[in-house]
Amino acid sequence: MANPTQDQSHLAPVKSADDARAGVETGHVRWILGISLSAIVVIFVAVLANWITF
Length: 54
Description:
Number of strands: 0
Distance between the termini: 71 Å
Keywords: Membrane, Transmembrane, Transmembrane helix
Region (Disordered): 1-20
Transmembrane segments: 31-52
Largest sheet: none
Oligomer: single chain
Mean pLDDT: 81
């Protein structure tokens, strides 16, 4: 068992925000969110139009 009084900061180093977000680009997330929301709106309008016509 490890000594609890010993410094263990090397086990879980603190990362900067940029390092923690490595691989995730804000622009791509916005595109995915925008396309998903647009698809939901289009499907909702299509279902609503179909419901109104019958």
